[in-house]
Write a structure and sequence with these properties.
Layout: H1 3-9, E1 14-19, H2 29-38, E2 43-48, E3 54-59, E4 65-70, H3 76-87, E5 91-96, H4 102-115, E6 119-123, H5 141-152, E7 170-175, H6 186-198, E8 203-208, H7 212-224, E9 231-235, H8 243-251, H9 257-265, H10 269-289, E10 294-298, H11 303-313
Parallel strand pairs: 1-2, 1-10, 2-5, 5-6, 6-7, 7-8, 8-9, 9-10
Antiparallel strand pairs: 3-4
Length: 314
């Protein structure tokens, strides 16, 4: 069942969340512990982020410098399969352009199809110096969409034909209520989002935001441009004092002054966590009142807060 079908059959605002694969050396139990804390709220699907290898330079015994690729986290495909098998909840692996070759993407699609995982979130991924040396990678998400669309048609990367998959991949894409950091303006950002919708995106998941008016304005803008697919708000509860400055820096998400004032009063992370949780509860209640199709929570360092919020709103 696709994500949009799941949202359609759910009578109330759906609940979903995103998890981060643990660092290498940790077992799958670390992932299970997050899911076990949140499964009582009937998650309709669980997203799993994807991370490419990172390049470091090491000095060899002969004094020469050698570039070495290090993989810090296990693969998303394996984690998605483990989750879907154990919990019978649809897993949604992230497939990204940056840091992966087109061939690696095809291998991932082959594996996911074999495992019966048909829901994806297609993303460009963060641009950084670590993926600069990766050749033959997609530059934009719409190119990644083209590869998935062709795979659904039974067309391989090299142009050859294969047996068309029995079940096609369906996918969502990202949206930015406060504009993507590289977009020259919101109109341009919406233009490219509309292109992704024309190319087959079935739903949109937004970057985190803390001001609901930014989300409502974004949805209105999308609707005026003819984008009619579900737009799912991405929610992140603040749990640390320094997130007042860190989150705007990393994710370009504004912190409303009313929230900033309360966070500046906090002396400890526990106080900041309480403020962030209460803000998020009120934020979610308003979103539910306005009939959003789903609330999608980013759980990194915030699982306990998400559990407390879910108790209040579901």
């Amino acid at each position: 069942m696709t994500i949009t079908e799941l949202l359609t059959k759910t009578k109330k605002t759906a609940f979903s969340f995103e998890i981060l694969p643990p660092l290498k050396g940790n077992s799958i139990d670390k992932v299970y512990s997050v899911i076990d804390k949140l499964r009582d709220f009937n998650p309709q699907y669980i997203n799993i982020t994807t991370h490419h290898s990172e390049s470091v330079y090491k000095t060899m015994d002969n004094g020469l410098i050698q570039k070495v690729n290090l993989r810090k986290r296990p693969g998303t495909v394996a984690i998605a399969a483990a989750i879907q098998q154990r919990y019978k909840i649809p897993a949604v692996p992230h497939i990204i352009c940056k840091g992966f070759t087109k061939e690696e993407t095809e291998y991932a699609l082959i594996d996911l199809n074999f495992l019966g995982i048909y829901n994806l979130l297609l993303l460009r991924g963060d641009v950084n110096k670590l993926d600069a040396g990766v050749e033959n990678q997609h530059v934009h998400a719409v190119e990644l969409q083209d590869q998935v669309n062709k795979f659904n048609q039974g067309i391989a990367l090299d142009g050859s034909s294969f047996d068309k998959p029995t079940v096609s991949f369906s996918y969502g894409v990202a949206g930015y209520p406060e504009k993507h950091e590289e977009a020259p303006n919101m109109e341009s950002d919406i233009y490219y989002l509309k292109e992704k919708v024309k190319n087959g995106a079935e739903y949109i998941v937004t970057q985190m935001f803390f001001d609901n008016e930014k989300y409502f304005a974004f949805v209105d803008h999308c609707r005026k441009e003819g984008i009619t697919i579900p737009i799912i708000p991405g929610i992140k509860p603040i749990v640390l004092k320094d997130q007042l400055t860190v989150l705007p820096k990393i994710f370009r998400s504004d912190i409303p002054e009313a929230l900033a004032i309360e966070l500046r009063k906090c002396k400890t992370d526990d106080e900041a966590k309480a403020v962030g949780t209460e803000w998020c509860i009120q934020q979610c209640k308003e979103l539910i009142q306005q009939g959003v199709p789903s609330l999608h929570f980013y759980t990194l360092m915030a699982t306990e807060s998400v559990k407390q919020i879910a108790k209040e709103i579901y």
